[in-house]
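Bug: token stream looks shifted between consecutive jobs. Job 1:
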Amino acid sequence: MRIVACNFSSLPWAILGDFNVSMLVQEQLGGKPGLSKSMMEFEACIRDCEIEDIRQTRCFYTWNNKRSGRELITKKLDRVMGNWLWFQQVGHLQVHFCAPGISDHSPAELHLRSRPPGLGRAFKFLNIWASYPSFLGIVRQVWAAEVSGTPLEVVAKKLKLLKHALQRLHGNHFKNPTSLVSHYRLEVEDVQARLEKDPTNPQLRDLEKELVEKLSNAGHVEEAVLRQKSRIHWLKLGDSNTAFFHKVCKVRQSKNFISHILNEAGQWVSEPRLIGEEGVSFFSHLFKGPACQAPVLLGSYDKCIPQVMEDDTDMAVSRVEVEESIWSQCNAPNPKEIPKV
């Protein structure tokens, strides 16, 4: 596998089959528990090859020993994995592990098909917006607008107005940071090439300084946006890790894509329109259906929290606790600083 990964590092490729070993302890039920040497070697090989599981549907455990009771052992031995170029170019493809039937392995189906049309993207707050000088002014202006309705409707309407204002801010100052980086880099290279022929030209020196500053700012925006989208919190700041963040974003996008869904009749649906209808139908029945009472099982459960902690759960929530909860989740910017991403 390492040889294949090295020979095809510049091409999209995938590998699938029975690897005869699980990668994680959670991928096994029954048998001898724990992390074996073969599992650690397999994980190291996957890491060296820089490949990742392609998103799958249906069967998670792909092999079992066809026994029952305490003798039953079931594992995830079969996998379909691709490199990051695979996720970049055909990341919409997913694997469907079918029922094993008479075999002890679940067959894997990888259907090659064209990429479906885009359905639009949900609004997401980018922390880098808070670095813009007039950001708080935009928020204050929107929040001061006169809106009618109940208190909850007023908040919802103002949030919608703020969404449009922030989208305009993004389009004017933060749109396509990767393209801006490429553009400014070419301009810097052009000016520096002209400086080689005329090194004492003061206008070219000033232009170079101005373009380098623009390139640095655009690179900072690009890295901040990609870091937030990739949700890699543990990577320390300082280096420009845009290539790594870009790879993580592509893998996440492919795994967030829904290609199949199981309807109430037990049938798999793959057409995008029908998938959307199933989602609407499921949540409509969920919220419109009659309420049901779940049975109380705590009476037979002896591991309960102490009375002191139980009393604390009934206490009023303070403003400080609300603020700490919001800032700690990196879901909104801190007025005093941009939270770590």
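Job 2, same session, no restart:
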Amino acid sequence: MAHIQLIKQTSSGLLLPATPESCDFLHQIKTGEWIHADFKRVRNYAFHKRFFKLLQLGFDYWTPIGGAITPRERELVSGFVEYLCESVGREHTPALSEAAEQYLNTVATRRTRDTALLKSFEAFREWVTIQAGFYTEHIYPDGSRGRRAKSISFANMDETEFQQVYKSVLNEPPRVSWRVFYL
């Protein structure tokens, strides 16, 4: 199977060979012979580089702050405190919230006692891509779910989809929270 590059030269939709290799291939095709092709727009390398410069800038300003307690765990503890308050007929007090926060801090300290927080550009890129909404979701044997970022390599994503990723990352609509760099 040949991979050729074509360029649209006129408003009529005429496609012409863009490279000498493409020209050689088309010269082998007889006039009137039908060929079949799957077309996709060639990725703009400069645009791709700009995207990675943006990611690198975000990565450089980001400082890992933990992650030992997940948002779901925080919700669970907060919900449990609310449940206890409702069960005994009392209002939620700041003292209870403080006790819950102290408990979560203790758990976080235990979890990270022997763990150094390391920055990983690949993990950062994956997080940004997932936050932008470009991921596949998997269900694991234990019933838990996980998300994996879609590949943004030239071979796996065309220009149109890459532009959507870029717009989503740059907050059209706001999906990636860039505030994490200012904490």
